[in-house]
Amino acid sequence: MSVRNVLIVGGGFTGLTTAIALAQRDVQVTLIDKAPAWARVGHGLTIQGNALRVFREIGVIDEVLAKGQVENSVMLYHADGRVMAELPTPRTGGDDLPATIGALRPDLHEILLRRAEELGVRIRLGLELTSFENHADSATSVLSDGTTETWDVIVIAEGIKSQTRPKLGITEDRQPTGLGIWRAVTSRLPEMTGGMAFPPDDTGAYKVGYTPVSDDQCYIYVLCPPERPDNGLADWQEVRRLMANYHGELDYLRESLGPDTFLNFQEIEWIFVEGPWHSGRVVALGEVVHAVPPLIAQGAAQCLEDAVVFAEHLTQDGDFEHLLTRFHSRRIPRIKGVVDASLLLAKWELHPGTPDADPGRVMAESLVALEAAP
Ligand SMILES: Cc1cc2nc3c(=O)[nH]c(=O)nc-3n(C[C@H](O)[C@H](O)[C@H](O)COP(=O)(O)OP(=O)(O)OC[C@H]3O[C@@H](n4cnc5c(N)ncnc54)[C@H](O)[C@@H]3O)c2cc1C
Q1: Using CA positions, which residue lies closest to atom 14 of ligand 1?
Q2: In Å, what is the CA distance from 118 to each residue of 94, 121, 134?
Q3: In the predicted model, is pLDDT for residue 45 greater than 80?
Q4: Sheet of strand 278-279, all strands in order from the earlier edge strand to the far edge
Q5: What is the spatial distance between Cα 198 and Cα 206, in angstroms, rounded to a whole number?
Q6: Which H/E stretch holds residue 132?
Q7: What pLDDT, on a 0 to 100 scale, did the predictor assign at position 324?
């Protein structure tokens, strides 16, 4: 089919990467986001090799690697600080890319934004999609400023809390995982290379980990129950409390937290839409249709893969329904593997001592399965 103009709703990793991948194929792209301005602060992320492969394909790999800290293995610790194991991380992007990097979300967003602008993507902030209407081979959008325009395709990349999802006939909604998470960006010593620590038995605590994001900074995550207790503690004190039984490098990290630390808490939800992701010419991508607990750090990677595989299909010759069906059939088994593994790991996190639980094996197997191109 010949696609000339596309509207993308949402400027997170999914929307921006889709915009870039389409613009690289000479499609005119307009991207809107409801945010009145881009947030310049945010947390760290672990970016796996298969996400780096997408960054290479869209022409930003050098900038991304320059902002990230490479990690090719993960250290596992007991809560008391003793090393449990060092596991090599599968190179899901191929041998010529690092296994993973740690980076700050706003740095990556900034890189994608620059690339989208360089390719002529028109970006408009403070706007939402109010409604849409499908026609035989186009779709019309009505935006929150009252303007109406017709497009070959509209992409919904609004994230897990998407308001448009039910309007596409998708009945699945986001669901609780039973877990919450605290994240903090803080300082680290040069010799601290990242890892995760498992809770002491019978304390009811969950996993804690950290990933370097620069020469002297890292982000910490602390898994916990899904509700923030009303215990009178400030956020930084609450995270220190949750980390109290962890030692070794985590002693240093815990003590580094204070009133000025950038911290946030959120409940972890998930969604997986196995059925069609589109209605007529309006297509949902990324976390609108698949979001997982971040236990193998594949959420953003799967969103990025959606973007490039979608652009590849959308710009081929052929019938739209047929191309979209092929795109969908190519993505579902791969994403299902990530969803199943992530939910199983979340279940084991919630039920320590489950017989036969083997998180290391499940993580490794699910990542090895991603080594093939998406
Ligand atoms: C705690 C946590 C840790 C994570 N860690 C990792 C990790 O280490 N590695 C990894 O790969 N992934 C990780 N992820 C997953 C990753 O963050 C997400 O998969 C990814 O950010 C989703 O991108 P997205 O663009 O689909 O959605 P979002 O990032 O949610 O972007 C959606 C965008 O759409 C805009 N928007 C929403 N509604 C509208 C509307 N109605 N109109 C216009 N604009 C709208 C929003 O303003 C936003 O800019 C983590 C997720 C969580 C929750």
Answers
A1: 299
A2: 28, 8, 31
A3: yes
A4: 122-125, 28-33, 5-9, 153-156, 282-284, 278-279
A5: 7
A6: strand 129-134
A7: 97
CATH 3.50.50.60 positions along the chain are 5-46+103-174+270-368
Please report how many Cα atoms fall inside a 13 Å half-sphere around the Cα of residue 47, on the Cβ side. Answer: 30
Q: Could you tell me which residues are beta bridge partners of residue 355?
A: none
Query: What are residue 141's DSSP bridge partners?
Result: 132, 149
Q: What backbone phi and psi angles, to 5 degrees, belong to 5? A: -135, 135
On average, the pLDDT of the chain sits at 95
Q: Tokens 């600080």: give the residue.
A: 81
By percentage, how much of the chain surpasses pLDDT 90? 91
Q: What is the DSSP string of 297-333?
A: S-HHHHHHHHHHHHHHHHTSSS-HHHHHHHHHHHHHH
- Say which CATH topology domain 5-46+103-174+270-368 has: FAD/NAD(P)-binding domain (3.50.50)
| Tens of pLDDT, residues 357-372 | 998 899 989 999 999 9
Q: What pTM value is reported for the model?
A: 0.97
Distance 255 CA to ligand 1 centre (A): 30
- Least confident range of 72-86, 176-190, 192-206, 290-304: 192-206
Strand partners, 149: 141
Question: What spacing in Å lies between the alpha carbon of 316 and ligand 1's midpoint?
Answer: 28
Name the CA radius of gyration of the chain, rounded: 21
Q: How far is the CA of 213 from the centre of ligand 1 (A)?
A: 19
Local confidence band at 1 (pLDDT 50, 70, 90 cut-offs):
low
Lining ligand 1 with CB less than 6 A are 9-15, 32-35, 45-46, 51, 128-129, 157-159, 163, 181, 286-287, 294, 297-301, 303
Q: What's residue 200's pLDDT?
A: 77
